[in-house]
C-alpha cells in the first residue's frame, strides 16, 4: 500500500518558485508530524521543514524565510512552497511522517527539483 506520494517538482530558474505536494494515507497523516526532506547527489538526506499535527512549523537554516510548509487536514496533504530558489536547492524532495524525531515510513519515489543558475 502506497502511503506517501510526492509531486510538483520540476526545472526552474534561480529566483523562481515551486510548490510541492505530498498525499498521505489518512491514518499516517492524522496522527503524525509531517516533514519534507531532500537529498542532493552524493549527500545525505536532510530534513528541511517540519509541521506538527497542531500546525507548528520549523525549518532548516538554509531554507528559512524562503520555504513554507503547510498541511491540509481535509485532504491529507502536506505542501512545501519554495520561493527564491537557489541552485543549491537542487535535490530529490521526499515527504514522510515523523514520530519521535524519526521518519517512520518507507520513502516514496520523491520529486526532483532542479534549479538552474
Helix and strand element order: EEEHEEEEEEEE
The N- to C-terminal Cα distance equals 39 Å
Mean of all residue-level pLDDT scores: 95
Percentage beta strand: over 45%
How many helical stretches? 1
Please give the largest β-sheet: 7 strands, mixed
Structural class estimated from helices and strands: mainly beta
What proportion of the residues is helical, as a percent range? Answer: under 10%
The low-pLDDT segments are none
Radius of gyration: 13 Å
According to DSSP, the number of beta strands is 11
So what's the overall shape? globular
Topology:
Blueprint: E1 4-7, E2 10-13, E3 18-24, H1 26-30, E4 33-39, E5 46-51, E6 57-59, E7 67-72, E8 77-82, E9 91-99, E10 102-103, E11 111-116
Parallel strand pairs: 2-11
Antiparallel strand pairs: 1-3, 3-8, 4-5, 4-9, 5-6, 7-8, 9-10, 9-11
Polypeptide structure, described:
With 117 residues, the chain is mainly β. The chain has one helix and eleven strands, in the order E-E-E-H-E-E-E-E-E-E-E-E. Strands 2, 4, 5, 6, 9, 10 and 11 form a seven-stranded mixed β-sheet that branches. A four-stranded antiparallel β-sheet has the order 1-3-8-7. A hairpin with a 6-residue loop joins strand 4 and strand 5 (46-51). It is globular.
Considering the chains and any ligands shown, give keywords for the structure.
117 residues; mainly beta; seven-stranded mixed beta sheet; four-stranded antiparallel beta sheet; 1 helix; 4% helix; globular
